[in-house]
Design brief:
- The protein contains 15 helices and 11 strands.
- It has 3 domains: about 60 residues, no CATH class; about 250 residues, Aspartate Aminotransferase, domain 2, CATH 3.40.640.10; about 110 residues, Aspartate Aminotransferase, domain 1 (Alpha-Beta Complex), CATH 3.90.1150.170.
- The radius of gyration is 24 Å and the shape is globular.
- Helix content is about 40%, strand content about 15%.
- A hairpin with a 2-residue loop joins strand 10 and strand 11.
- The longest helix has about 35 residues.
- It has a 7-stranded mixed beta sheet with strand order 1-7-6-5-4-2-3, sandwiched between helices. The chain has a 4-stranded antiparallel beta sheet with strand order 8-9-11-10, with helices on one face.
- The chain is α/β, with parallel strands linked by helices.
- Helix 1 runs parallel beside helix 3 and helix 14 packs across helix 15.
- It binds pyridoxal-5'-phosphate.
- The site of pyridoxal-5'-phosphate has 14 residues, from helix 6.
- GO terms for molecular function: carboxy-lyase activity; pyridoxal phosphate binding.
- One of its GO terms (biological process) is carboxylic acid metabolic process.
- Belongs to the group II decarboxylase family.
- Keywords: Decarboxylase, Lyase, Pyridoxal phosphate.
Amino acid sequence: MNFDFDEKQRKEILNTVSQKIEHFYTNTKDYSTTPELNLQEIRNIIASENLVSGTEPNKAIEHIITGLENYSVHTPHPKYFGLFNPRANFAGIIADFITASYNPQLAAWSHAPFAVEVEAHLINQFIEKFGLNPKKSDGVFTTGGAEANLTAVLSALNNKHPDFAKNGMFGLDKKPVIFCSQEAHHSVQKAAKIAGLGYEFVKTIPTTKDLKIDTDLLEKEIKNLNNSTHSPLMVIGTAGTTGTGTVDDLEAISKICKKNGIWFHVDAAYGGGAVLSSNLKHILKGISASDSITFDAHKWMSVPMGTSVFLTSHQEILNKTFRITTEYMPKEANELEIVEPFSHSIQWSRRFIGLKVYSSLLFYGWNGYEKVINHQAKMGEYLRTKLTENNWIIKNSTELPVICFTHQKFESDANFTKTILDNILAKGNSWISVYPIKNVPTFRACITNYNTTETEIDELIEELNKERKAYQD
Ligand SMILES: *Cc1c(COP(=O)(O)O)cnc(C)c1O
């Protein structure tokens, strides 16, 4: 068995793959947004493949691509108005292919100096974009926002408790408490579970009418902590909540944190993309005073999954949190002014995550991104206008292209949103979701695709109007 195949076979395989991908990429709109969720059928298809002696490569590729095409929500579809899953841009797709082929090991600088330096360069660019002090800041690529938020919790613990790395929670005399809004992402609770705090110690603060964290209540809750048994560890502000795209008042949170000596983390997994547009970046005011930031490039920068950054204005903290000395890791680079990625990160062996961002910047530039972000914000505005013209009412308030809405006539009818959502998903022309705002269900549509234009939005409006009319009759 030749694991490499020969040149002719490789070219044939690549050719098949590239034809299939090209077909999907150019005709994405012809696909159904919604897959059939037939569990038994999917399991049978997988179980019928011969994994003992293997199969012919072209047949294998046919099987994989048919499986993905028939049984996925097509997030790259221009009418996927869904969660923050983008259409992956071509530069990022190519980067993942190149990364897999060269398979650089980014754990140690000396194994992959070009790749590590590319990531370091990009981290510095993000630090500047978000307005952190380049001389005093640091950061690392992570696999996603969940890993970045966990990194933030661990950094805050190690910053506050000098012996945390050695003694862990056992060394603390008070229970650390994390504050965030009720609209914050649940990866915060997950991070508290993994870090060993327990999710009971995530205190979620109610939101104001405009769905931002209530900073008066936040201040009150911090004051009300029993400070003989509990101590405030960090406040997490969200820039672009997952449900409604709301940006918390980051300046106000920052002031509260400064006053009380609390770590201020901004979860800008989605909304951080606003920093790339001079029209939009004002909504992130206050982020530059944060102790740390989460930003997912695999959301608004439309690179393939597994690409996020954690940034911090505490240059020493990643090293303090993650450094381990070993005998077997290469040491040649120790004298140089470099960072060993394995000692700054939860991960050890590391994939070249940052190449997807680097190739995108090489292909499109920050200027290209600014255009794309502005286009998507404009499409959000267009959707809001069209909805209002058609007697739908907007229930959230944000400059980001996340729109939560319901219809004047059916605002208090819970069955309305459910019925219409089921019908829209069953038809597979568009993908939207339902999100409850203060317990009232609303439709949620987000522009996540740089290829979504007025045409697709008009089609969505038409579909919504038709469904509403059918429900009414
Ligand atoms: C998506 C998201 C996360 C989780 O990030 P992953 O990349 O999915 O791990 C965290 N916070 C917010 C606000 C998000 O939108």
